[in-house]
Amino acid sequence: MTALAKVPCSIVTGFLGAGKTTLVRNILQNGAGRRLAVVVNEFGDVGIDGEILKGCGIESCSEDRIVELSNGCICCTVADDFVPALESLLALPEPPEHILIETSGLALPKPLVQAFNWPAIASRVTVDGVIAVVDGAAVAAGRFADDPEALAAQRVGDISVDHENPLEEVFEDQLLCADLIVLNKTDLMTAAERDKVASDIKVAVPRAVKVVETTGGQLDANVLLGLGAAAETDLAARPSHHDNEAEHDHDDFDTFFVEIPTLDGAEALLERIRLAADAHDILRIKGFAEVRGKPMRLLIQGVGSRLQHQFDRPWRPEEPRQGRLVVIGQKGLDREAIALAIGSG
């Protein structure tokens, strides 16, 4: 890379729990010799994804190359957070050769792409590509898509039912901005479901965008990086539900955290989470807990009531072993009831 060359950046977008952090981690572990850096954004005040990445111990991406923004949507805080984050990485003695930007699951990618035209960074970075990660199993189950016939039937009896679904709008905006769509978690899908979801995605996206299938975010870094899209110069080809809005907000969503006491084992907590997710329509839950007698922290991640858990790394001597889970859902979550249901015991 010459001194005048722009540093390529890949924007990794995708709905809650699609597998963005796992994909980014796999790129870091198999970066084909590139010197990488990461900007990771959380929806809410408690950073989990940045902690997951910092625990990787990957030589090509040390902790000083992982910048975590956990005070809101990255596309809403461009001047205050995002541009300074990029500038700090570019100022490193050995600046990154490629930057990965993981958005929150509720972020709209197009405003972030537009930010690359800001004078402070326009001559120094470019959007190599927007990668949209899709939880194929969730979409196949209708988790993020409306049923038009059911909605029409509802409207017959109640004219107040709104056509618009904020979740579906966010999901569609992420697809419409993409240069590559990763259909993830295909191991949880039948062949017919994979074909239908891939077909539906291609119908929803008006331009030719490749859809690649995978499980566990396992893709060769050379498939994901080096797309050369220069997406910031191609905004007109990336329509959005929010193109005519001066700004957007996340008032349709809610997030908070639940403190988790030290556990004797994981299964009781996991069952409480499943029951709470079903009862309160929780979209996403993720965080860490301490299991008594175990030197490693327990990482828990879930989409609805579908959960994954593993011991990801040893607790550090200086960090408090306080279990904490972030809960994300649509507005109106009963925080007290959820905290009692999950955190008790």
Write down the secondary-structure element order: EHEHEHEHHEHHHEHEHEHEEEEH
**What oligomeric assembly is this protein in?**
single chain
Evaluate the radius of gyration: 20 Å
Number of helices, counting only DSSP H or I runs of 4 residues or more: 12
Number of strands: 12
As a percent range, the share of strand residues is: 15-25%
Helix-strand makeup class: alpha/beta
Sheet bearing the most strands, described?
A: 7 strands, parallel
Shape: globular
Helix content range of the residues, please?
A: 25-40%
Provide the spatial order of strands within the biggest beta sheet: 3-2-4-1-5-6-7
Identify low-pLDDT runs: 44-50, 158-163
Q: What's the average pLDDT? A: 80
